[in-house]
Amino acid sequence: MARKPTLRDVSRATGLSIYTVSRALSNGDGVSAASREVVLKAARELGYVPNRAAQELRKNTRSSVAVVTASTSNYYYIDLMKGIQRTLRLSDRTAIVADIAAEGVYTPQLEDATVRDLIQSRTAGVIATLTLAPHNMKLLEDWDIPVVFVDSIPPETASRVPSITTDNFAASLKVGAHLGEHHGYADWLFMAYPARWSTRAERERGIRAAASKYGARLEVMESENDAESAHATLRAYLDSPGGSLPRAIIAGNNPMVHGALRLLHDRGVRIPDEVAVIAFDEFPWAPLLDPPLTVLNEDSEAIGVIAARTLTRIIDDQVRAELRGEPPVPVYRPEDRRELGADLVVRRSCGC
């Protein structure tokens, strides 16, 4: 059976945006008579019949925002959601969570399916914690759905899209300076998650720069982004021929430190006497551990507030544009791209 023509087919045939085609077919405002005639003619020739249910979905009140996460087992996202939810409530909007890397395992098929579902449900906007594929960014752009990235960078094809990130290079230099200059540790292990999480590159670059500056030997160990994988990978690393316990472990995020601490506990390794431990990302019970955990605190709740404020402004501008009969194209500003600092919270697990 031949594929049924879609709104996108009419858009391609006319050279007009999906928004303009949709407005023309629904007899909406903001479309010239000439453009409307071009659209109607192309629709007749292609045999396109508008989906009235889909049109009704596009008339919603832009009240729901999607937060695309990459493994909700990371406590970073819990504090992030606090900031997002608190801010969205001020504009009577709600947030839904879509996890595209359940238990730390990412699949492009799940990302594609999630983005399609968000478009079909006509979400007002997206806050994404993982760099989305360029073709999915293009889909969201075609449907005028704004995106704000947090803890990740937009794809290169989306150079204007907002992002709220941490200066991870500078943050890693703080970690390295504390280990190398303050404690004099010369043997470091960096437990890293996969590079598809864009924060990995700058964190590793900063750790490598610090190791070079302080003359430390550095090993980088990568695992999948969940505690079980981190535990298994660290066990294999230590049990490998020539493997030995480093003087300091730097855990790249919450799942990495969870896996590391469990293995060290299982083996009776004394922290910090035998190995010092520092982790990225604060979490509520870090000061309650024995010994209390030294962490690099990004303040993800504050990042969530900034991201939600940015997205709210963009959506509100779209609503006002529609009321004026104009296309609701997201308007991004240069200041929507922000890089924030992070603080090293020193406790006893590093040897202090």
Task: Describe the fold and architecture.
- It is a single chain.
- The chain has helices spanning 7-14, 18-25, 33-46, 52-57, 75-89, 108-120, 134-142, 168-182, 199-214, 227-239, 254-266, 300-323, and strands at 64-69, 94-99, 125-128, 147-150, 163-166, 187-192, 217-222, 248-251, 276-280, 294-297, 337-340, 343-345.
- With 352 residues, it is α/β, with parallel strands linked by helices.
- Strands 2-1-3-4-5-11 form a six-stranded parallel beta sheet, with helices on one face. A six-stranded mixed beta sheet has the order 7-6-8-9-10-12, sandwiched between helices.
- Helix 1 packs across helix 2 (18-25) and helix 2 (18-25) crosses helix 3 (33-46).
- The chain is elongated, with a radius of gyration of 24 Å.
- It starts with 6 loop residues before the first helix and ends in a 7-residue tail after the last strand.
The rounded distance between the terminal residues' Cα atoms is: 70 Å
Low-confidence stretches: none
Give the C-level CATH assignment of the largest domain.
Alpha Beta
Q: Specify the helix fraction band.
A: 40-55%
Strand content: 15-25%
Order of helices and strands: HHHHEHEHEHEEHEHEHEHEEHEE
CATH architectural category of the largest domain:
3-Layer(aba) Sandwich
Shape: elongated
Q: How many whole angstroms does the radius of gyration measure?
A: 24 Å
The tally of domains stands at: 3
Task: Say what the CATH topology of the largest domain is.
Answer: Rossmann fold
Mean pLDDT: 90
User: What is the CATH H-level superfamily of the largest domain?
Assistant: Response regulator
Total number of strands: 12
Helix-strand category:
alpha/beta
Arrangement of strands in the largest sheet: 2-1-3-4-5-11
Give a short account of the largest sheet.
6 strands, parallel
